[in-house]
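Preliminary data (for renewal application), adenosine monophosphate complex.
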Amino acid sequence: MTISSFPPIHKPSRDDMPVAPNLEYAKTRAGFDWQQMYSELDWLPGGYLNKAHEAIDRHANGPRRDKIAMIWEGKNGEREDYTFGQLKTLTNKFANVIKSLGIETGDRVFLFMDRLPETYIAFFGILKAGAVVGPLFSAFGPDPVRDRLQDSGAKVLVTQPELRRRITGIIPELFELQHIIIVNKNNRDTEGRDMADLDWDEEMGKASTDFDTVRTSQYDYSVMHYTSGTTGKPKGAVHRHQAVVQQYATGKWALDLHEDDVYWCTADPGWVTGTSYGMLAPWTNGLTQLIYEGGFRASAWYEMLQKHKVSVWYTAPTAIRMLMKAGEELPHRYDLSRLRYSCSVGEPLNPEAVVWGEKAIGMPFHDNWWQTETGAILVANYPEMDIRPGSMGRPIPGVEVGVVDENFDPAPPGVDGNLVVRPGWPSMFHSYWNNTEMYNSRFRKGWYVTGDSARVDEDGYFWFVGRTDDVINTAGHLVGPFEVESALIEHPAVAEAGVIGKPDPIAMEIVKAFVALKDGVEATPALQRELTRFTRQKLSAGVAPREIEFVPTLPKTRSGKIMRRLLKARELGLPEGDTSTLEEEE
Ligand code: AMP
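Predicted structure:
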């Protein structure tokens, strides 16, 4: 049974491929034991495990010492290259910097940074010091930054002058924050810094290049990423050092990373893909990777692929759809002959986009599925496996993924159900920071419940169906409607607000808000613009509503909960009488 109307894309046999894929899927999956992959890690003496050692020092201490680990291209065309050896020295220095500030094992140190080399140096320096690193998306406004720093109790924040200025107003509310370190890259900023802040260059200048990586255990916390849910504020999903084994393994299997590849992951490190696959997977595999500071522009992206001879590319559906919009002809103006493998994650990859890849860049996009909580890829299309366009692929070796009905019985092939995972995969999140109840609620009847619905076909290919909650996926970023509603009602004109994801051909969904105004306030286009500006400034352009519609009242349950799904049904033009599922909310 094939669910897509697109014919399968057949793959040549292994022997006919220019580069033999790392993974022989059926063979590896049968009787797989994670010990095989654990034994490929380097480990610290005494059985300790630290992600920074696996990603950087193990190479710096061996034959890859002078291999380029990072090619950085700045937004103004600057270029900096760093070898594994240099990264070892710089991350040692930063580990010394934060140790000198009194940071202890398990303390949280957050990054609010663009894609600068210092972001990567700080990330691994923090891990070396045994602390927990929390990267934040640099487009965030003050509210999301405050919520995350308050919840995590971060003691040190590393940021840049312009981002520091953006959040000045919230600093007095961060009672546990002790230091702010400012990276003024290449002295781009000339406005001068707050005297109470520390300067990256000054601190690094004083720091020793020697550092003994803290002997963390595989169970110690390492990285946390905040992710949005339907209700409440975003939750900090915490990962352990152990996750590195799966990030390493999936880099090999799903991204097919080979020694001589130049790899480019377009995700920002503020999101989990940008750390698991923009830092850990490529570097644990000893690869050279490109970090591009600039934003999306079709021609600039093709230019990056050409100029840096990228051979493996990991990107996202919204970007691919924007490339499609820019036309099939454009990529043909560039020499993309080094590109041999491309993958996508973060949102449903429509079959048209998979197939478009073949025409435009000479290969299909390989979709794969995972989420913040899973820490690493769990379902993927692999190089040697035929692609069924529209399918997320098949589970990685060593992990059981299922589709179950509401009683947690397996759904028959082709039938929609909840996408679930058998707990215990190595990169599984180990808590939501300060929220044990929410963490426990994700595990039911021996399964981890992902919040997605899917179906599986008779050959074990998984097909994404949708989310089972109200979380919005806009351009691959999850947005909790509650966060946006809370921001809107802080405006004096707003009585109540309901927020939904509205289908969009490029971003998959955009954030749409329905707003009821306070008595006597007039619904004008100027007020609409004012609310857009207000929420953008508080949250970020990506999270703020792209559309605002004024309504006299919002539909609510008897207990007063806004019926977002009814708003969505209305928006989609579904018959309002036919809202049987909505009655559950009564
Ligand atoms: P995040 O935790 O922000 O990485 O978002 C994870 C969510 O993005 C998943 O639970 C899915 O809803 C969605 N997602 C990720 N990858 C895919 C994919 N390949 N196809 C469809 N949806 C995806």
